[in-house]
Amino acid sequence: MSDTPNFSISASAAARICEIIAAQPDPQGLALRVAVLAGGCNGFQYQFKLDTTQNADDHRLTRDGADVIVDETSLDLLEGAELDFIDKLMGAHFTVTNPNAASSCGCGTSFSLA
């Protein structure tokens, strides 16, 4: 794997991450952890959570002051993908546009590989 992760953060996702972290009682060192876990209705699912821990195999990506932490295994599955934040009438949520996903479910948090 290259030293530069090919996983990007959209401007809207960066702005929302900054808002969420600023609203926390102790925002120091917080980042959004993005992980790919086995499960969901299509085989894999995305997990988003605030975290202060950075493990040895984690990569930290930064955009517009927003920090995102991704473990190396998840990063392999997110190669070429983008973290985005969608705010529509039906609801607001983080989403991943992942070219590696062969299919995804309606909830947008579960996908399968080709």
TrEMBL record:
Domain Core stretches: 8-108
Gene3D superfamilies: HesB-like domain
Bilayer-spanning residue ranges: none
Highest taxon, organism lineage: Bacteria
InterPro entries in the cross-refs: ATAP, ATAP_core_dom, FeS_cluster_insertion_CS, HesB-like_dom_sf
A Pfam short name: Fe-S_biosyn
Classification via NCBIfam families: iron-sulfur cluster assembly accessory protein
Cross-referenced PANTHER family: IRON-SULFUR CLUSTER ASSEMBLY 2 HOMOLOG, MITOCHONDRIAL
Protein's name in the database: Iron-sulfur cluster assembly accessory protein
Biological source species: Neokomagataea anthophila
